[in-house]
Specification:
- By secondary structure, this protein is mostly helical.
- Helices cover 79% and strands 0% of the residues.
- The protein contains 6 helices and no strands.
- It starts with a helix and ends with a helix.
Length: 138
Amino acid sequence: MLGSEEATALRSVLRELADDDLLEDFLDGNCLAFKGYVAGGEQQLEWTQLHKQYITSMEARIAQLASASELISSDRLFSLLAGVVGKDERAGAFIVRLLSMADYAHFCSMMASRAAEAQALQQFQQRARGLQLALTER
């Protein structure tokens, strides 16, 4: 059973991980390297190196947050997360990131999806700028 102090600590850890600018910067800064990723296809050496960096960063961040909470060890954090998956959106997002640590193909798929989203956003922004220019020229 999850006590109120543990629940508060878990929410805090999930909030910190969801709002982790360094991790988001890493993902955003490297996702375009995966735009050519095809499951089961040829792999680039860079992807393996980025996966290793991701694992190191995630492990360090999880340990840092768990030790800062003083109420939750890393092992207890994983146990608690298993109990709230499906009930908390942030927990689900965190589980996706955990799976990406343990499974290289999952990591590559996550990064390729993020690259596709980034490219779609860039295209949208370019079209919006073009529309804005067209409207201001009238």
